[in-house]
What we know:
single chain; mainly alpha; Na+/H+ antiporter like fold; 75% helix; globular
Amino acid sequence: MYSEEFATDGASLAEEGVLIPPLLLLNLFVVLVMFSIGLRVSGGELLGILRKRSLFVRALLANCLLIPAIGFLLVRIFPLTPDASVGVLLLAAIPGTPIALQFTRQAKTRLAFAAAMTFVLSLVSVAMTPLAVEVMPQTAQRNQRPILLLMMSIVLYIGLPLCAGLWAARYAPKIAPRLVLPLGILATVAFLFLMWETRLVRRAALSTIRGRGTIVAMLLLLLLSMLIGWLIGGPDRESRRVLATSTGMRSVIVVLYVARYCFPGTNVDMIPIVYLSLMVPTNLLFHLAFTGWYKLRPAAEA
């Protein structure tokens, strides 16, 4: 969900020799998923989800207060380098990533909730990003460019495709259902290509920041965030599933924005790249385990 201007500045996951630019794949993936969700839910469903104030308040408190506090504790506990500390604190402070849609869209009965959480947490990241940068060390360069690009991307790659899907479902009700399956397949292919095209840069980032407990600290941040998301999800297991992933998958691309623009010449940008390598397989295992567990359990216990 990020602009070509960011990609051309070099502040991206791109690497030499890739077949398709990773940011193009990410944008394509988000547009396809949001459009597909728009085809399957109604505007009334989305508004109904947004009216569940208690659930959203819990989600906001967890993402804006509790998880940043966990990040602060982790950088105190582990002997991280200054660059790694900044990266972990930024990840803990900035929620929301459309990458979560690869997993949350599997919650078929909570598609509207998954879309609403993606949109709301993306908006929250707009507010949290300048606050996070403000409390960072004085070496940070104040730069409003990431915020402007983020706001533009939320509209272009989340809001517009979702509205387009809602419009198509309303005015072409016979055609819309036929588009869902091919769009889902295309989105999955785009996501797989995204992970393939970033494999080398993720491997290099892992080698760069290895040591001093950095990987363990990030894994703990991920797992604890997912646990918090699960616990605040209420009695509905599909809502817990969506919140566990939406809360655990921090905004790696926004953190990459901030690292490149506000912390140039450092290794802060390596942290979100490695976190991407951790959060995708972890959530894949979580959703496989979730699906398998509830399929095996008797219906009476579900």
